[in-house]
Amino acid sequence: MQGLVLPPLAQGDRFEELQALLSDRWRSVDDFDETAHDIVIIPSLSLDRRELTKVKGVHHYEERLLFSLIRLRNPNTRLIYVTSQPLHPTIVDYYLKLLPDVPFSDARQRLVLLSAHDGSTKTLTQKILERPRLIAKIRQLVRPNLGYMTCFNSTQLERDLALQLDLPLLALDPALLRWGTKSGSREVFAEADVPHPDGCLEVWTEEELAAATAELWDRQPQLKRMVVKLNEGFSGQGNALLDLRAMPQASPHHMAPEERVGAIAQQFEHLSFQCDTETWDSFSSRIPDLGAIVEAFIEGEEKRSPSVQGRITPNGTVDILSTHDQILGGPDGQIFLGCCFPADEAYRQQLQAYGLAVGNVLAAKGVIERYSVDFMAVRASEQNPWDLHAIEINVRKGGTTHPQMTLKLLTGGQYDAQSGLFLSQRGKAKYYVATDNLQSDRYIGLLPDDLMHIIAKHRLHFNPSTEVGSVFHIIGCLSEYGKIGLLSIGNSPKEADAIYHQVIQILDDETEAHLHHPFHPAYG
User: Are residues 83 and 116 in contact, defined by beta-carbon separation less than 8 angstroms?
Assistant: First the structure.
């Protein structure tokens, strides 16, 4: 059976009809449900390809949705997980054995793994759309009136695939993608009355960007720095810093308007880019395609980057799922590296309040599923309160989704909005440190089976009796890129941090000899 082919108008009608089925087919991951469900998981990172190439081993990030195996705890649920290249069996077994109270053999029988066998840089969803026989196979596997499709992020490609599969899409309608851009985020913040930096909405040329930057400087002549962002940048890789202190004149009022715009345009050549391979030529070439914004850089003696995560259900209910303090890196601290859960108690409740306000605005616009809001938190001294400034909205799963959902998979616990803590089924508060970017050249060449041996040798695994330990992800990145994801869970922030750094030390010690092998890429 081939995929459905409908005229454009009928496609729109059919998509709305399918989406109306979500409220009956979708069930919260928190619910134990004996109803039969078939869930098609498409972990495609359908984002700008040139931006994604800045992320090492990005094609292995399709593994990040393996936390979805939590749904196999429901005895009549089947998962159909599709990837570009086949997943290593060791990785699949590793996740299945994390499932509490579910026999491994039963869970494995209800997990169907499919692959496009395509290692190109195309998005996974595009690869599937180009393979009608693969689409037909998925359609045959899904039982009538029991399935839906979910994904990492939603674009027109995911909408097209959902129509081909004739399944509702548990994700954002791509017609609403604007609300996840840098410019759309600013509009939502204003509507939700959430504080955010002064700046502009999207511009589409270098000239417009220079003019918008000059206008911002004119409004706020005391600014020292500004952030220039591609409207659809990813993980901070599309950000660049403009240092106004390097301008020929320290104040915008010392120049005529035309001179100010021209001086700023020249200064763009000297932006501080967060990606080490980026240049102004390549950055500016993306502006006509993606758009760009400029906004005030938040200065402060003490700064942090917290975030809040939420979910909008198909019936419009807004739930806060978690808060985090993000771990940022790069030349100017703009690139997402990892996170700590939960966010500091000093601003945790305020994050939740702002996150709920944003979620209510998004829900009113028709957005469903995951969203997150990133902030900058600043204070002048320990005696001062923290000020929160909203930076951007992501209307998709993100770097904080995997650790939070993995914790739920491991403990069966719940997020308690009143305290902002995650409580296991035993009522014990759990804390974690997580990263997608644990990378070292010495790890290059480690196979998945090598990692499993190190885990067993040093007892690095998560212990279900104490509910303490570590879980690894994007394991497929390890051998080629020396990169892996790590989640370390403890009964206190201090314990989680200690476990996290202990794992790193053990990996470093285990691979020390690799650096001295004459055939190792980092040798010499």
Answer: yes
Which pLDDT belongs to residue 327?
A: 86
496-516 exposure pattern, b = at least 16 Cβ within 10 A, e = fewer:
bbebbeebeebbeebbeebee
Instruction: State pTM to two decimals.
Output: 0.89
Q: What region does 345 belong to: left with phi over 0, alpha with psi -120 to 50, or beta? A: alpha
Residue spans per domain, the chain: 8-171, 198-296, 302-515
Q: In the structure encoding, which two tokens stand for residue 350, read together?
A: 């305020």
Domain 8-171 = CATH 3.40.50 = yes
Distances (CA, A) of 342 to 110, 372, 404, 421: 33, 14, 10, 7
What whole-number distance in Å separates Cα of residue 519 and Cα of residue 524? 10
- As a whole number, the mean pLDDT across the chain is 90
pLDDT of 170 reads 95
Classify domain 302-515 by CATH architecture: 2-Layer Sandwich (3.30)
| pLDDT tens digit sequence for 158-172 | 999 999 999 999 999
**Cα distance between residue 204 and residue 369, in whole Å:** 29
Is 225 in a helix, a strand, or coil? strand
Helix (H/G/I), strand (E/B), else coil: 155: coil
The span from the first CA to the last CA of the chain, in angstroms, equals: 56
Q: Are 354 and 194 in contact (CB under 8 A)?
A: yes
Report DSSP letters for 351-362, one per residue. Answer: HHHHHHHHHHHH
CATH fold match for the domains 8-171 and 302-515: no
What average pLDDT does the segment 210-217 reach?
94
